[in-house]
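I am writing to request your help with a piece of structural work I have in hand. A protein sequence and the structure tokens that stand for its backbone fold form the material at issue. Please examine both parts with care and let me know of anything in them that strikes you as inconsistent. The record follows directly beneath this note.
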Amino acid sequence: MGMQADHGPSRASPTFAHPLPIPIFYATVALAAADGCTRSAMVEAGDTCDKISHKFGASTFQLALVNEASIAENCDNLMPNSTVCLGHAGTDCTKVYTVQPNDTCAWIQSVYGISNETLWSNNPQIDATCSNVYVNEVLCVDTETFAYPSFNRTQYETMAYTYLPWCDE
């Protein structure tokens, strides 16, 4: 993937530059109290982790994190009519953005007014050069910083690298 002129703060980014801001999605789903889950969603036939994240306003990272024990590393075990947790109190980012072709981390930071530190803190799965962000990944773009617990980096990276070929579309 080639590099392109930066659109904002200095951080290396993959070739992505989006012409217009995409609306932020705010979650509007039922609350669920089980296991500290503050909101949940029902899986429908054909859902993927990214589709659920986009539809219900939870970052792809957050969905994987709060369902680490039940969602497989490549997210291929979602069962229709099952319930997934979307967030836990205190670590539930509902201000999200779905990555589009040609987006850069710098562009996202500039459009949503977030610093490098906040983007990487709220999306700790992003590598230092922002080269593992992929089209349709849902990122937390809140200006508030969430303190996520440690996570299974292998699970996220398996999911990310499953979708990375779509970056070149």
About this structure: The longest strand covers residues 37-42. The radius of gyration is 15 Å.
